[in-house]
Amino acid sequence: MYNQEIFNSGAHLFLRVLRHIWDLGFQMAKSIAMLLQQYGIKSGNLLDLGCGIGRVAIPLAKMGYNVIGVDRTKLFIDEANLQAKKFKVEDNVKFINCDYNQLLEKLRGLSFDGVISVWTSIGFGSEEDDVNALKQALNLSNDNAILILEVENKLRYAGPPKKWVERYDDLIVYREGFLGEDSRWRSKWTFYSSEGTFLGEYGDDVRFYSSEELVRIVEKAGWSAITLFSDIFSLKPFNPDSNNIVLVAKKL
């Protein structure tokens, strides 16, 4: 299961990855804003679950939305606050370090027109934890609020253990993992400098979902699923062979 202390030990390295892919957040935000506008949410309050360093929340704030971003990792929240100042959106975005099962406690008195969670920000606890977090987000949402949820597609990881290498400027990441019979993806990230110096490692233990399972937990939390896409950037119709699942749901 998810262990925040283990993740924190490698968070400073993962921060370098997030900085490298910062510009992807602007592309994600454009697609998210387009989806929100299709459902009549052209402005208003948004909740970003698993906001990381604000790479999606800050572009949405620049578009005029008021955004609350929450993340379990304080280092990411500190970075997000720095980025908010850099992009001059401090009045439109606020970042909070908390667990997703503390939403009702930490966000008491707030209400949202949309909830977003991208880049597989759920699944780090149990399935019940995910349902509870989505239920709390629902309780904080206005009627007709929209949920946009993006996760890895479990079917992509089925079969033998996987290994691959990623490079982010002068940071090289060796990744390996396997999908257990319990649908949990157990993996290790090992970080090296471009010169080959070992920098550190950490492990993930994440509950991955199929499209059917994702719809089930979202509706168990009280949301009404509307549609599925294969990709947050292209918003192509969902294909079971796609790398990701993007689910759109509504509070009725």
UniProtKB/TrEMBL annotation:
SUPFAM superfamilies attached to this UniProt entry: S-adenosyl-L-methionine-dependent methyltransferases
Reaction it catalyzes: arsenic triglutathione + [thioredoxin]-dithiol + S-adenosyl-L-methionine + 2 H2O = methylarsonous acid + [thioredoxin]-disulfide + 3 glutathione + S-adenosyl-L-homocysteine + H(+); arsenic triglutathione + 2 [thioredoxin]-dithiol + 2 S-adenosyl-L-methionine + H2O = dimethylarsinous acid + 2 [thioredoxin]-disulfide + 3 glutathione + 2 S-adenosyl-L-homocysteine + 2 H(+); arsenic triglutathione + 3 [thioredoxin]-dithiol + 3 S-adenosyl-L-methionine = trimethylarsine + 3 [thioredoxin]-disulfide + 3 glutathione + 3 S-adenosyl-L-homocysteine + 3 H(+)
CDD domains linked to this entry: AdoMet_MTases (cd02440)
Organism superkingdom: Archaea
Catalytic activity, EC: 2.1.1.137
Similarity field: Belongs to the methyltransferase superfamily. Arsenite methyltransferase family.
Name under which the protein is recorded: Arsenite methyltransferase
Originating species: Thermoproteota archaeon
